[in-house]
Amino acid sequence: xxxxxxxxxxxxxxxxxxTASASESGLPPKxxxxxxxxxxxxxxxxxxxxLVSIALVLAVRFIIGGRPTxxxxxxxxxxxxxxxxxxxxxEPIVGKKAAATALPxxxxxxxxxxxxxxxxxxxxVGSVGLRLPGGNDHEVFKPFIRSGNxxxxxxxxxxxxxxxxxxxxxxxxxxxxxxxxxxxxNKADKREIPLPIYYFLFLIFFFVGLVEVIxxxxxxxxxxxxxxxxxxxxxxxxxxxxxxFPFYFLELLIGLVQALVFTLLxxxxxxxxxxxxxxxxxxxxxDHESLEGSTATP
Length: 298
Description:
The chain is mostly helical.
C-alpha cells in the first residue's frame, strides 16, 4: 500500500508533467511527433486519424450487427437512413452517370471529416499532454492526441485525395477528349453566329480554359486551408475560453457545416463536368414520351 505522502508526491509529479487543460497556450500549430517507425515520424494527429478510422469501422459493424440483411435491423436502418440522406443531397449535383462511382467516396469523405471535426471537441483531445522545456526559458506544450483536421498535413492529404478521385471520375465517365473540349473547346454554335466571330471565339475560350486550369490547381489549396483554418481556429477558441457551452455548441455546428461544405465542393467539381447532358437527356426522354402519347391518341 502506498502511503499518503507517496500518493501526494506522485500526484504532484503528474501535475507537473501532465496538463488537464491547454487554455493558457492553446493548441500548437504544428503536430508533434510521438515516436518513429523507422524514418517516418508518427505525430499526434496521425494517431488520432488512425483511431478515428478504426472506431468508424468498428462502430458501423457494431450498429449493423454483422452483415447487412435484406430486411434491415434497427441499426442497419439508421445507417441506411443517414446514407440515403447524404445521397439525396449529393446525387443531383454529381449527376446520374457518375453517381454510382462517386457516391461511396463522397459518403465516406463526409462522415470521416465530420467525426474528425467532432473528435477534436472531446475532453483531452489537444489539451492533455506534456510540458517540455523549450528555448529562451519557455515551455513547449506537446499534446498526446489532437484532431487530424487541426493539422495542415491532414487537410492537404484529404484535398489531394479528393482531386485524384475527381480526375479519375471525370476521365472515366466523360473521357479525355470531352474534358479538353470542356476546358478549351469552342462552345458556340457555328450555325448561329458569323464565321469570323466563331473562329475568334476559339482564342477567347482557350484563354478561359487557361484560367479554369489555374482555378483547378488552386482547389486543393482552398479546400485544405478552409477546413484547417476553421477547425484549428475553433479549437483554439474553445481552449482559450475554457470550453464555454455556447462556443462548444457553435463548434459542433461548424464541424458539421465544414464537413458538408468540403463534400459539396468536391461534388460540384465532379458535377461541373460529369453532370452535363443529364437535363438534356431527361428533357429528350420526356419529349419523346409526350410525342408517343400524342401519336397514340386517336
